[in-house]
Design a protein that fits this description.
Strand order of the largest sheet: 4-5-6-7-8
Largest sheet: 5 strands, antiparallel
Pfam families: LXN
Distance between the termini: 46 Å
Helix content: 10-25%
GO molecular function: metalloendopeptidase inhibitor activity
Number of strands: 8
Number of domains: 2
Strand content: 35-45%
Keywords: Protease inhibitor, Repeat
CATH class of the largest domain: Alpha Beta
Number of helices: 3
Shape: globular
InterPro entries: CYSTATIN_LXN (IPR049897), Cystatin_sf (IPR046350), Latexin (IPR009684)
Structural class: alpha+beta
CATH topology of the largest domain: Nuclear Transport Factor 2, Chain: A
Domain Cystatin LXN-type: 1-57, 74-176
Length: 176
């Protein structure tokens, strides 16, 4: 019986194509929130109806551009106060969205609804291996309580290995 384990929800979603903003793909998700567990993220099963376009070439181009920078990338307030994301920072915004997704799944309950509001600060950290590392301070808007919560998130990314979040924690309100 599902009520002994947790609560299961079925969602129908529309995903926006990252490469073509006018194109969407339908998907369904099954989300299981475990009863009494504050430490485990919900189990999610997603089925995509249709095909998402490959980002392989754009990923390689971004990776090579960032690896070739003489100084580490540093940026703030993405999007800006008018909702604009400069085209050259769009990949950083997307990586922040992925990192925030990890934080959201790890900290969601049935009574929360988080949304990435803004990348307050991002700094690239040079590494000796092949990964790109970005240390983010993201602002998550909790829609139910209307709180804006700052989170520090470290994201490692490589076009062949995808994104990984080795650490994240709630940040002090004045962090940047």
């Amino acid at each position: 019986d599902i009520d002994d384990v947790g609560h299961k929800y079925y969602l129908e979603l529309e995903l926006e194509d990252v490469l073509d903003k006018d194109r969407t793909v339908n998907c369904t998700a099954e989300v299981l929130y475990h009863l009494g567990s504050k430490t485990s993220a919900p189990d999610v099963q997603v089925t995509v109806q249709g095909e998402l376009r490959s980002t392989e070439e754009a990923d390689k181009e971004f990776y090579n551009r960032i690896r070739s920078l003489e100084k580490e990338l540093v940026a703030e307030n993405i999007p800006d106060s008018h909702g604009n994301v400069p085209p050259e920072l769009e990949p950083i915004h997307l990586l922040a969205w992925v990192a925030s997704g990890y934080v959201i799944w790890q900290n969601s309950t049935e009574n929360t609804k988080f949304h990435l509001a803004q990348v307050k600060h991002v700094k690239q950290v040079k590494r000796s291996d092949e990964d790109l590392q970005f240390d983010f301070v993201v602002l998550l808007h909790e829609m139910v309580s209307q709180e804006v919560l700052p989170w520090e998130v470290t994201l490692l990314w490589h076009p062949q290995h995808g994104a990984r979040v080795p650490q994240s924690c709630a940040a002090a309100a004045g962090s940047s």
